[in-house]
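Customer escalation, tier 2.

The customer says the design service returned an amino acid string that "doesn't look like it belongs to this structure." They asked us to rerun it and document both sides in this ticket. The original C-alpha cells are below, unchanged.
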C-alpha cells in the first residue's frame, strides 16, 4: 500500500512498439560499420542532427578509413557570423526567441558548399561526408541519417554541450535551449525531411556508446504502421524547485531523487518513440511521426489547420508535498503571433489527478482589482521579495477529478499539494511568470520573470464571478446510464480543444471523426483499446498513462481490464 495509490505501480516508463515486419537492425559500432562496409559505397554521406556526439564521426573514420573526409560544419559561417545572422530570432531574452521559418542555406557559405561539391565530383577515392546538412553536398552512394531524442539534447546542454558550431559550453542552459528550439531544430527538421525517403540507414545515437541502426525502409515502415494504431510516447521526468512526490510512487521513479516536478508524457515535440526490430530497440523523436505521416496521425481537419504540428499537449505538474508553481499568464494569439512568430497560443487546463485537503489552484483576479496597482505591486515585489497574492488572486480548493479551464490571458498556477494533468495547446516557452514566491531555481539563479510581457496580455475581466461561472468545473453530462457516463468538462469556448471524461465498467465505442484523439487513464488499474475490425492488436494502458489514437484508426473500443475505469479524451473541435 502506497501513499498515493493502494496497489503496485504498473506505469510503463519505456513503452516500446514491436515492428511486425522483419528488417535488418544492428547494435553497436562493430555491427554498424560492418554493415555499412558491405555496401562497397565510394561516397558515404552521414547526415546528422545537431547534438549528435562526435564519437560517431571518430568511430566511422577509424573503421571505414576513407581516402577523404569532408566535414559539413566547415561550410557553415563562423560562430560570430552565425550568431549575428540569428540575432533577430534569438532576441535578448533569456528564454524566448522568435520562430525561424527560413532554411539552412542562410547559414551556409555558398562558395564553400560549391567547393565541397566540386571535390566530391572530381575525387576518385572513397569519401566520407559527415555532419549536419552534409546531404546538401551530395546524398552520395549511401545515405545514413543519425540523430538523437530532443530530451537527450537538452540533457547534453546541461552537461556542457554547446549549440551547433558554438563555443558556449558554459552558457545559461535556457539560452542554449532557446537557440535549439527556435532556430537549429527548425532548420534541421527541414533538412531531415528533404532526404527522409532516401535514407538507406537510420542510426539512433541517444546512448553515445550504444548506437542502434536500422535500414531506412525499417524506420519508415515503423512510423507508417504506428500512424494507424494506438501508441504511447516515451515519457521523461524532471525535478524542479516546486516539485512533488506523487510521480515517484505512481510512475515508479527513483525514490532517492529529491522531487519530480514535470513529466511530458504526451508531447511529440519533446517526447520520443521506441521501436523493437527483432532484439534491437531504436529510439526516435516523436516529431518524426508527426512530420512523416501527418495525414494519418492528425486527420485532414487538424492537418489543414495546424500543418505537421501536434496541437494537443498532455503533461504532469506535481506539487504533492511540494510548493506552488510560479504565478503566470500565457499570451493572447495576437501577441504570440506578432512578437514570437507563433500561429497559435497556449490555452490550457488543469485536470486534477490528485490533491490533498489543502490543495488548490490560483485562477483569475479578485473583483475590483486595479490593473495599474496590481502591476506596480508585481514590479515592486521584484525588489522587496514580497507580494500579497491574497489581495489580488483567487484561490480555489481542488479535489480529485476537478477540471479548471485556463484560456490565454488568465492568471493562474497550481498550488502546493496538487497533482495536475495539464491539457493544453502545444506552444512552448511562452509562460510569462509574474511572481515566483521569492525563490531561486535549481541552478541557484532567479527564474525568469516577464512582467513586461504579462501586463500586455492579462485579461482583467477574468475576475472571481466570471471564473466561477466559466472556468471551474464547467461540466455538462452527455450520457449517464448502465453502460457508461460521459461528461463534457471543457475546454472553454475560447479554446480549440474539447475534453470529455468517461466512467465505465463496460466497453465504450469511440470514433476519431478524422481528428487525433489523446487520452489519459485518470482512474482505475488498466484498460485495453481494441480495433473494431481487428486492424491492430489490443493495446493495454495503465493508470496515469497518456495514449494517442491516430485519426486514421476511425472506430475503436476502450474497455476496463479490472474494475471501473475513468479516462479523459481530448481532441480538436
Amino acid at each position: 500500500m502506497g501513499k498515493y495509490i493502494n496497489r503496485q505501480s504498473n506505469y510503463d516508463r519505456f513503452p516500446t512498439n514491436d515492428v511486425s515486419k522483419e528488417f535488418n537492425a544492428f547494435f553497436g559500432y562493430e555491427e554498424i560499420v560492418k554493415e555499412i562496409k558491405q555496401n562497397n559505397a565510394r561516397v558515404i554521406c552521414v547526415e546528422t542532427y545537431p547534438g549528435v556526439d562526435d564519437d560517431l564521426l571518430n568511430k566511422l573514420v577509424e573503421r571505414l578509413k576513407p581516402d577523404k573526409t569532408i566535414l559539413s560544419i566547415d561550410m557553415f559561417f563562423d560562430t560570430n557570423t552565425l550568431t549575428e545572422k540569428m540575432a533577430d530570432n534569438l532576441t535578448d531574452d533569456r528564454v524566448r526567441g522568435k520562430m525561424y521559418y527560413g532554411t539552412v542555406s542562410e547559414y551556409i557559405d555558398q562558395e564553400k558548399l560549391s567547393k565541397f561539391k566540386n571535390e566530391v565530383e572530381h575525387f576518385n577515392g572513397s569519401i566520407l561526408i559527415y555532419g549536419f546538412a552534409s546531404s546538401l553536398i551530395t546524398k552520395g552512394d549511401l545515405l545514413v541519417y543519425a540523430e538523437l531524442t530532443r530530451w537527450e539534447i537538452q540533457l547534453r546542454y546541461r552537461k556542457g554541450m554547446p549549440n551547433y558550431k558554438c563555443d558556449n559550453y558554459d552558457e545559461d542552459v535556457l539560452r542554449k535551449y532557446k537557440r535549439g528550439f527556435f532556430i537549429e531544430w527548425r532548420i534541421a527538421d527541414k533538412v531531415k525531411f528533404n532526404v527522409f525517403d532516401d535514407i538507406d540507414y537510420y542510426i539512433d545515437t541517444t546512448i553515445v556508446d550504444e548506437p542502434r541502426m536500422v535500414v531506412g525502409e525499417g524506420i519508415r515502415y515503423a512510423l507508417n504502421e504506428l500512424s494507424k494504431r494506438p501508441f504511447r510516447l516515451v515519457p521523461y521526468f524532471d525535478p524542479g524547485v516546486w516539485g512533488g512526490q506523487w510521480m515517484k510512487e505512481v510512475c515508479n521513479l527513483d525514490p532517492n531523487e529529491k522531487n519530480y516536478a514535470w513529466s511530458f508524457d504526451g508531447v511529440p515535440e519533446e517526447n520520443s518513440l521506441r521501436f523493437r526490430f527483432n532484439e534491437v530497440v531504436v529510439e526516435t523523436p516523436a516529431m518524426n511521426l508527426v512530420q512523416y505521416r501527418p495525414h494519418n496521425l492528425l486527420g485532414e481537419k487538424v492537418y489543414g489547420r495546424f500543418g505537421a504540428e501536434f496541437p494537443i499537449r498532455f503533461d504532469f505538474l506535481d506539487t504533492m508535498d511540494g510548493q506552488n508553481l510560479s504565478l503566470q499568464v500565457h499570451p493572447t494569439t495576437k501577441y504570440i503571433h506578432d512578437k514570437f512568430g507563433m500561429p497559435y497560443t497556449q490555452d490550457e487546463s488543469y485536470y486534477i489527478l490528485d490533491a490533498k485537503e489543502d490543495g488548490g489552484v490560483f485562477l483569475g483576479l479578485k473583483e475590483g482589482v486595479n490593473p495599474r496597482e496590481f502591476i506596480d505591486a508585481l514590479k515592486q515585489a521584484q525588489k522587496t521579495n514580497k507580494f500579497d497574492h491574497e489581495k489580488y488572486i483567487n484561490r480555489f480548493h481542488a479535489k480529485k477529478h476537478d477540471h479548471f479551464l485556463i484560456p490565454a490571458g488568465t492568471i493562474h498556477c497550481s498550488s502546493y499539494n496538487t497533482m495536475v494533468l495539464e491539457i493544453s495547446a502545444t506552444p512552448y516557452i511562452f509562460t510569462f511568470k509574474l511572481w515566483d514566491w521569492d525563490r531561486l531555481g535549481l541552478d541557484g539563479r532567479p527564474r525568469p520573470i516577464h512582467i513586461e510581457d504579462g501586463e500586455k496580455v492579462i485579461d482583467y475581466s477574468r475576475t472571481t464571478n466570471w471564473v466561477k461561472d466559466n472556468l471551474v468545473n464547467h461540466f455538462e453530462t452527455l450520457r449517464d446510464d448502465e453502460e457508461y457516463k460521459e461528461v463534457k468538462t471543457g475546454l472553454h469556448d475560447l479554446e480549440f480543444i474539447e475534453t470529455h471524461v468517461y466512467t465505465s465498467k463496460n466497453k465504450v465505442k469511440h470514433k476519431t471523426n478524422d481528428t487525433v484523439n489523446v487520452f489519459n487513464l485518470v482512474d482505475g488499474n488498466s484498460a485495453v483499446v481494441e480495433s473494431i475490425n481487428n486492424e491492430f492488436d489490443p493495446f493495454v494502458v495503465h493508470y496515469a498513462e497518456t495514449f494517442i489514437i491516430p485519426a486514421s484508426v476511425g472506430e475503436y473500443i476502450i474497455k476496463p481490464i479490472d474494475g471501473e475505469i475513468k479516462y479523459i479524451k481530448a481532441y480538436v473541435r
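Tier 2 assessment: The sequence is consistent with the input. The mean pLDDT is 96. The chain is about 25% helix and 30% strand. Sent an explanation to the customer and offered a walkthrough call.
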